[in-house]
Amino acid sequence: MANKKFNKKIKRHRRKLKEKGHLDLRILKEVVNIEAKESEEVYPIVKIDRTTTQDILPMLLQQGIFSNYNKHTTRNEIIEKKKRRLRKTELTFQEERKALSRAKIYQNSRSVIRDYHEYCIIFPVSDYFDHLKKRVRTGSKTKKILKEMKLYRLAHRLAYAILSEVYIQRTYTRIVIPKEKLIAHYLGYNTSEKHIYQDIKQVLNAMRWCRYKRWKYEYTNIHREVSERGKIIGAFLSDLREDHKRYTLSINGVFVGSVQYLFAEREENKEERKTLFSRGYHDYPTRVLPLTKNYSLHTYILTNFLIKESGNNKLKEKTYKVVAYRVEKYIKEAHIKHTRKGQAFKTFVDTLKRTEIIHRIKPTIKELRNMNAKQAHEITLYIWIPSPIKALDKFILTKLERRGRKEK
User: Fold this and answer.
1) Strand ranges for 141-198 from DSSP E
2) Res. 35: pLDDT tops 50
């Protein structure tokens, strides 16, 4: 929402411009500075934990998590069946993981689990029914509740908006976000669109109850196996309340990560900082949320990937960072999963062309289109992105302004 103080100043200066009948550069410069300051306050640049964006938030990008649920077999039944088939009394960790991930959906006494091999999403059926204070737990009721557990892209965008507010409000408990700010400001929807309220309610509910467990991390391309027990991450939200004007949320500290230590007032020594900030964090321009509203999933994910990347130090320029990886890695990061290399590469080139934060690339789009897929997967692609972060934020602003003029 526009700041009244700034609006009054702008009107006063513009009136002076009109009275003078010509452009006074001093006054014009002051107007521009006021507008820029107001714009920064409306869409601030925040900090988000790097491991959260790389390893944890992608788990939200799953569609139809429990849509095929139909009273699936139990975890123990799957394990026992695998033991009989292999004629073994005990399975190795790898054998057990392979059997469970192949089953995809299974249950234990209290939960239903959707297994994606490297991680799983757990819905605690018993806890949820206890929360609803319903004693009768029929299969049809469970199936209906599971069908309502939706995450995917809206959950991912909501996570970024909520983590931005965590940084702005300097706390991750009882964050208050007005509905108008979340829906119109961050997500870019019209508040008169009634369906979005229900969609957000459903997704926030899934973010409150779906819990995550992870076995493998791939941050910076280093495969790091955690213990055979896996790492319990938990649900994104630890508390969720809503009234007709606002959402009140508490966020799981694992998702907040290193950023929570930026809120502390005390000074840390070098060793303490190394421990507290081991997961790292990166700048995030909140203006990118409305920019990416209508992006395809691949373009949206690639944009966020390029924002969090610090770039190659040896290649960086004064006003640009240069991200340099093999095409194969970019395709993986953009969640392009075609089995045919040719189709995956074609989708990637189309995604590159639609990614608005890119200043230039080498090889060019034209040169990439002339390559065969096998050759292209192995080459290094250089991508120039405006830098530092304030320059990127201004670049995004110009894109949004241009889009606004076209829509008029």
Assistant:
1) 175-178
2) no
